[in-house]
Amino acid sequence: MDISKIGSSAIDKSFGRGGQAKDAVVIVSNLEIHKPVVTFCDMSQAQKEFAFETAEHAFKLSAKREKRYFKDIAEYIKNEFDNKFQGTWHVIVGLHFGAFVSYESQCMIHFYINQLGFMIYKFG
């Protein structure tokens, strides 16, 4: 899916799951990027912070139109994780998806930035 087709109004809205505050982290052009909302985490703090930083950077690249599709964002994050941490990492990025996966202990996170979901896990 072409990220530009989401539209600024869809991306700008924070869904505020669980009554979370809408704390903005950064503004890219007209795009306000909110703090990540974690739905599941079995990952070290260092890996978690790296996931947030990498996903936020990929989100900014999409706002600049350097990464146009969700698969490009997922590929970017996967390559960053493969280079920084050992093993084989898998990344799913999208507005709507479901997953049931096997993963290595302490190597999985699922979170949202604005309405965009990120699932990052290690297996293999």
UniProtKB/TrEMBL annotation:
One of its GO terms (cellular component) is microtubule. The keyword GTP-binding does not apply. Coiled coil: none annotated. Belongs to the dynein light chain family. This is Dynein light chain. Its main location: cytoplasm. It is found in: Cytoplasm, Cytoskeleton. It comes from Paramecium sonneborni.
